[in-house]
Amino acid sequence: MSIWFKSFKVRAASSYLCWTAVVFTPAPNPPAHLDHSEAIWVPIRSGTVFVEPGGGLVRNQVAPVEAPNLFLGVLDDTAVYAIDLHDTSDEGDLEPVHLRKLYGRIPDEEWVIAGRAEQIVNYERTHIYCGRCATPNETNPHDRGKVCPNCKHMAFPRLSPAMIVLVEKGDQALLAWGRQFPGRFFSTLAGFVEPGESLEQAVEREVMEEVGLKVSEINYFGSQPWPFPHSLMCGFHCSYESGEITIQEEEIIEAGWFHANDLPPCPVGGMSIAGWLIKDWLERQGIN
Predict the structure, then answer these.
(1) Which of 3, 23, 152, 238 could form a disulfide with 215 if both were Cys (CB 3.0 to 4.6 A apart)?
(2) What is the CATH number of the domain that holds 66?
(3) Residue at a domain's end among 108, 126, 144
(4) pLDDT at 22
(5) Nearest residue to 117 via CA among 38, 51, 47, 67
(6) What pairing do the DSSP bridges indicate for beta strands 95-98 and 78-84?
(7) Are 173 and 154 in contact (CB under 8 A)?
């Protein structure tokens, strides 16, 4: 399955996702027909990506560092590999940049690939042994699965679905200052999906838990892989139905309704789907 990378745009009173011609195809093994005259290399260690000094991801025929590498897939016609630097201090002549700070410095499709590299390297390091009986796992040759030869337990890369939502009330939007932000910084509401719960049910539950409001008209907006550490953010708009804001103090410091021309510090556009949700809402309020 190929992934068409997104460029986010807003038009009039509606948002839409525009897919570019850049195609990344995830795969556990290199296709036989692949041209290896050049490859993209993502050396990584604990969320820090090592890139060309002042530039982007390494493009070369051979790996820039002697360390275990993992095939990630194909970007257009170019092989992409992660390089696990956890057990080596060798960084070559590359520049260390944290994955968060790398956004905007390299093309979006390369940033998503760097996030994939972080998740796959972490998965490989944490699934050497079976989580049930501690027998060394074997790698399934056809996918990313790990199979225990003793008890047959299977494991796959961890992915944690989470909903993220902008609640709207007339010409106002609900924003909250979460305790994860050290300074006074607001954003949309978000939370992980519980077992046996739909995404829409997660929206209803999280909004009620965090701010005490009942919502309706829950509409899907879009999704984003979020490699901090392994979330899939599923974005929604919804409408306020009833209730008064009552914050969940363990999670929220402050929450309120805000007009488009009087927003607190918050993301608008940028690297996260929270910023895309807010940007889309501002566009629909007539603010570019």
Answers:
(1) 238
(2) 3.90.79
(3) 126
(4) 65
(5) 47
(6) unpaired
(7) no
C-alpha span between 288 and 236 (Å, rounded):
21
What is the spatial distance between Cα 43 and Cα 97, in angstroms, rounded to a whole number? 11
Task: Supply the CATH number for residue 176's domain.
Answer: 3.90.79.10
* Spatial distance between the Cα atoms of 251 and 237, rounded to a whole number of angstroms: 21
Q: Distance between CA 281 and CA 234 in Å, rounded?
A: 16
Could you give the number of structural domains in the chain? 2
Query: For position 9, what pLDDT does the model report?
Result: 36
Cβ(58)–Cβ(5) below 8 Å: no
Q: Taking CA 88 as the corner, what is the angle to CA 84 and CA 93, rounded to the nearest 5 degrees?
A: 85
In a domain? residue 222 = yes
Q: Are 175 and 168 in contact (CB under 8 A)?
A: no
Other Cβ atoms within 10 Å of 106 Cβ, number? 18
Q: What pLDDT does residue 254 have?
A: 98
**Which is it for strands 48-51 and 39-45: parallel, antiparallel or unpaired?**
antiparallel
Best CA proximity match to 43, nearest among 102, 105, 76, 92: 92
Residue 227 lies in a domain: yes
pLDDT at residue 288, as a whole number = 77
Q: Over the stretch 197-247, which tens digit does the pLDDT of each residue have? A: 999 999 999 999 999 999 999 999 999 999 999 999 999 999 999 999 999
User: 67: closest CA among 139, 138, 117?
Assistant: 117
In the predicted model, residues of the chain with pLDDT beneath 70 are 1-22
